[in-house]
Batch of 2 targets.
Target 1
Amino acid sequence: MLFLYLLNPYGLNIYIGFLLTGLIILQKGFLVKNIDIGFLLLFMFSLTYAAFFSFEPKAGNQYIIIYAIAPGTLYLLGKYFADKVDGNRANLVLLLLCAGSVFSISAILSVFTDILQNGYNVVDRNLPNYWTGQIIPATIMGAYFTIVMTIPALLIPEIKKLPFVMKIVLLLTYIISIACVLRIGSRTQLSISVITLLISLFYVMPRQSFKRNFFMFSLFALIIFFIANTVSFDLDQDWLSAFAGRMEDGGGEDIASGGGRTERWVKSMENLFEKPLGWSEDEFGHAHNLWFDVLRIGGFLSFFLLIAFTTNAFLSVRKAIKKNKSAYALNNLLIVYTLSICMVFMVEPILEGMFDFFAFFCFFIGVVKKYNTDYPVID
């Protein structure tokens, strides 16, 4: 049911989310044992944001309840499944890998189906959802690729219990995802793939054997040589049409300002003091930042509660990474997931249109919290 929620077939994850909430509540003794400061901050934020959203529920009245209960439910589900693997770090890695991969399936189906039907010679970056046919903006569609775009970074360290066949499946998923990301012209997702790969290399290389490092760099060199000699990167190529259009529309100044986002962030900071209870979207549109868009809709109280929750979450990730320095496959995954999610949080509204992405983050933090509290520290 968790995977069905992440997959969201035919837009049914709203109802699956309600069912998951009920099942979590019915787990005997689970709530009492697993309520912590992170959950309380998240729950207070959710209720406050839902209350402000109810004054102008553009997405629909059902989202009042969804905003109020879904984040906390996914947070507790993270704890629930982390508890089921009983502290086995290899299983934690597999759990998070599977959850992240399932989360991307609907987007891959949507974009890759369009590529097979229409190719790359289509100007419109917005594509229909595979399940419902509803047109989804490219920015929202791109967010669902975030985790699978980190696959090369995740596979750098040796992951115990991950079969070779599964590694091949993950790499094929990544290749298909690259094709999809180029179709929707997502610079953010390509940046996430490159940056997380570099960060992972810097983290993992000193911690693994020379033999594995040599094999890894030899493999990278062969792949780069093969691509350089077989693939044309001319922006006039059909498969680069959507991406080339974005590069032509947004020059160096546009990229430096984050597509005009920095100006909106400055205005949002000014409105924190001038309009602390929020403001209309008509003023300058989305702030394209998780925290500032929450400030616009939910006012200063929701804003500071979200800051408190995310700060607590990032500190928990830091604690988990320091907990067992030898578990570098898990630590690498925690670093990569956190970095990639933060990169999207910084440049997109998230709760408006990408709520499932925030819910996945809550699930991920729930797993981290359980790992921190219930399993022994190993230096």
Target 2
Amino acid sequence: MKYSLLILLFFLCAPFIVTSHAQSAKSLQVTQTKASVLGTSTLHDWECVSEKFDIKATGSMESGQVKTVESLTATIPVKSLKSGKSGMDDNTYKALKESKNPNIIFELTSPVEVSNGQAEISGNLTIAGKTQPVKISSKVNGNTFAGSFVTKMTEFGVDPPKAMMGTIKTGDDITLQFEVTFK
């Protein structure tokens, strides 16, 4: 009898427990974004920057500081990447197969817990239509996440661009950097 009362009590309270937990993760609003792709070439180092892209995220904040990120999808339009040189931008869009794959997409694959100003981020990154799992160590300062990681263009099926009939070649290694501020 005592156990059946406990079981009944559990089933009556369970919906409230689940609802209470689900409400702790809420939509995180983004106030500022910046993503950069840095690389090298036989002529000079280069950088392409996107300062405005779409992020949809849920998580929790406490006193203006991000505590968890439960889900996150970032969509960066390829044509939002700018180097300051239109010829280089055109080569970038062509190399990233922008006409068939207009966006670079990152999707979080496991929740993120912020601890001591650090967060380990795991997700799937899609560039030029090819998806690869990535792990990113990031620093968290209150409500701002900043991180970077190194990869190769060829890991995403991207041929490093060439110019001037192949005399200028882009290196295969690239560094992807990001900074996102939530409120």
